[in-house]
Amino acid sequence: MELRVLRYFLTAVNEGNITRAADILHVTQPTLSRQLIELENELGATLLIRGKRSLTLTDDGMLFKQQAEEIVELADKAEQTFTGKNEAISGVISLGASEALGGRVLARYMKQFLKKYPDVRFDLYNEMADNIKDKLEKGLLDLGLLLEPVDTKKYEFLRLSQKESWGILLRKDHPLAEKDKIYVQDLREYPLILPKRENARNEVLNWLQCEESHLNIPVNYNLLSNVALLVEAGIGCAVCLDGALSVHCSPDICFCPVYPEHTTRSVLLWKKNHLFQPAASLFIQMLHTHKWGE
Question: What is the pTM of this model?
């Protein structure tokens, strides 16, 4: 199986049309169709349902698309690494980041690094924690910024000193917004939107000192950016970290601290004993020489 054929397949899927994909790839339509049929024969599976004007993925096709994207991304990353090996420091550093105040600290160090190495480029992916760790394992990301608690056994990591506080995101006309001070027991009578990530969810439930079955939980979330819209609509209050609000701003909602105070920190991690391309290696070295969170 050749990378070229994988790129053919992904282009056809993304365009949803053989003719348009062939134009983009600068091949004839019969050539592209033949390559896709040969790919299916090689795999022994039907990947595409061919309509008169469109292509639709089968279940096998959806699974293969995900794997093909990962293979092509790894190949592109390897090419970028060796292309600039004998030149000035260049290349791409891939970062995955969850919603957190730690992203502001990371941004300062990215800016400082780019000032010293202007030929380097960062690819930044905003992802939930489990996806970031999965991509780190597969080599699709160089580093990941995650919120504790996180299992760091397989990783080297730096813990940021900046604390992030759990609280509640709610509409400004919500009854809790009128209180001078909100306590965890005040939250239990209202619909709550909770994080879906297991470690974070367990931490929140422990903080609330309440069984999940005793709460009204209309929605579970991975990233807060869309949840803020649900809060605006009055579906419920979102239990979240104050740092996650950097991605959303609305005059109709507000973040309120909840007592007793419960805080966490961000960690930046990367795989142990991993051979990084020069740019990523230098970036990690720079991080080690600074005091995080200052």
Answer: 0.64
